[in-house]
């Protein structure tokens, strides 16, 4: 056992150093200059995302944001499980601004007391799309006010994401219901 502990410590230290190495080689993640939270509220359709355990089997995913009287934001995420006709799953949380100079850096909590970074890194001039990332670049969502996005806009967003150090090959498109 005495020989096993140093081995485990060495393996853990190597794993941590390897994961931090990529962080030091990358430039810091840029956010948008300013977010008008009132314009940002409402419903967004998920266009694509990095796969995450908590979104497994989700389709038709939406996020709805509502300003609260205390300055925080209600967050309601919904998706259909396995198909667009599947069971509706809902997760409710809240967000708080951590950078009031820009309102672009927020934290979101679905399981208090745990908070996760939610950074708005790209935003349409008319708030028609938004891109949400994380400083580690392990999380990424492309959102739209409509359930679909033009290929030209999507490709332009992907180019800006690559410039920010994101691996756009990891993105998975989200199935959304067609609108008439």
Briefly summarize what is shown.
By secondary structure, the protein is α+β, with helices and mostly antiparallel strands.
Characterization of the model:
The protein is 22% helix and 37% strand. By secondary structure, it is α+β, with helices and mostly antiparallel strands. It has an eight-stranded antiparallel β-barrel with strand order 1-2-3-4-5-6-7-8. A hairpin with a 2-residue loop joins strand 5 and strand 6 (114-123). The longest helix is centred in the first third of the chain and has 22 residues, at 4-25. It is globular. Pfam families: Lipocalin_2 (PF08212). Keywords: Lipoprotein, Signal. InterPro entries: Calycin, Lipocalin_ApoD, Lipocalin_bac, Lipocalin_Blc-like_dom, Lipocalin_CS, Lipocln_cytosolic_FA-bd_dom.
